[in-house]
């Protein structure tokens, strides 16, 4: 396939031509570009050789654009204005970082710490995509993702373990008010169980039997129901630790269950990674990693 840019002249030659065309004087153009008059003349001559015909009439005092030069000058000027406008808009745009996380991770870990993140990286506009779907970094324009995954990882990605899935059974203290904690697994199985899409309860009890109880498509919804006193939920300890510390939830059983895969911070390796993306990544490693 032919190179579509093969006819483009050197940028320095275009800059010299544009400045000389505005001033109609090589010395004035040289002063603007902080080069010598001879350098401007050389760049213009290089451009004329590149395109195959002269662009200026050389006069005793300065220069004048010929007919072809005038047409070319108008187009080159327009192109430089487009580049200048595009660059100005880019510099004015906020530095955006898109992070893809699961809904429960967003609700329980990221959003409560959002003000701390914006304080640590004040120039960032963080876009949070909460989804259970696997992010396509290129198609979805995602910079960083948090996902349940396991090694080995493709060489094209950076990864950082955040925490393992240690599951605990939790409920509202109001629901457990008349019970002495912790309760046995037998007593727990008689409680109203709140299920999510991960279906961890059978593994927690070591059974293959189907267990009764309300079913939610997200762990965050099951935890909301638990907070409302509707039953006992099972969730990764990292997602409920703040509620346990605040007394909004209690751990109802001493039993825990560690399951795979683990929660990892993931991003695509890139030679063009921006300082803002790096800053958000480093903040997440420092403040979200509980491993």
TrEMBL record:
Keywords: DNA-binding, Transcription, Transcription regulation. InterPro entries: LysR-type_TF_proteobact-type (IPR058163), LysR_HTH_N (IPR000847), LysR_subst-bd (IPR005119), WH-like_DNA-bd_sf (IPR036388), WH_DNA-bd_sf (IPR036390). The keyword Lipid metabolism does not apply. It comes from the Bacteria. Residues 9-66 form the HTH lysR-type domain. The keyword DNA-binding applies. It holds the Pfam family HTH_1. Belongs to the LysR transcriptional regulatory family. This is LysR substrate-binding domain-containing protein. It comes from Psychrobacter proteolyticus. The lineage of its organism: Bacteria, Pseudomonadati, Pseudomonadota, Gammaproteobacteria, Moraxellales.
């Amino acid at each position: 396939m032919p190179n579509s840019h093969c006819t483009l002249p050197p940028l320095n030659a275009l800059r010299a031509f544009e400045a000389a065309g505005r001033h109609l004087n090589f010395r004035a153009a040289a002063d603007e570009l902080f080069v010598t008059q001879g350098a401007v003349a050389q760049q213009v001559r290089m451009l004329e050789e590149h395109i195959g015909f002269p662009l200026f009439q050389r006069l005793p005092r300065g220069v004048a654009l010929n007919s072809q030069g005038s047409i070319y000058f108008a187009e080159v000027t327009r192109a430089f204005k487009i580049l200048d406008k595009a660059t100005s808009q880019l510099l004015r745009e906020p530095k955006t970082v898109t992070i893809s996380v699961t809904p429960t991770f967003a609700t329980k870990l990221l959003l409560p710490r959002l003000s701390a993140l914006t304080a640590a990286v004040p120039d960032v506009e963080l876009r949070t995509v909460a989804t259970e779907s696997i992010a396509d970094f290129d198609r979805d324009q995602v910079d960083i993702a948090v996902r349940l995954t396991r090694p080995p990882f493709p060489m094209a990605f950076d990864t950082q373990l955040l925490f393992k899935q240690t599951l605990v059974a939790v409920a509202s203290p109001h629901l457990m008010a008349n019970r002495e904690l912790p309760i046995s697994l037998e007593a727990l199985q008689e409680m109203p169980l709140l299920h999510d899409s991960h279906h961890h309860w059978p593994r927690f009890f070591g059974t293959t039997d189907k267990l009764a109880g309300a079913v939610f498509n997200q762990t965050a919804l099951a935890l909301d129901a638990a907070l409302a006193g509707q039953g006992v939920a099972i969730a990764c300890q990292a997602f409920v630790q703040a509620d346990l510390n605040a007394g909004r939830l209690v751990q109802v059983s001493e039993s825990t269950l560690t399951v795979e895969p683990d929660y990892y911070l993931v991003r695509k390796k890139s030679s063009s990674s921006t300082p803002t993306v790096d800053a958000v990544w480093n903040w997440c490693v420092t403040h979200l990693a509980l491993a």
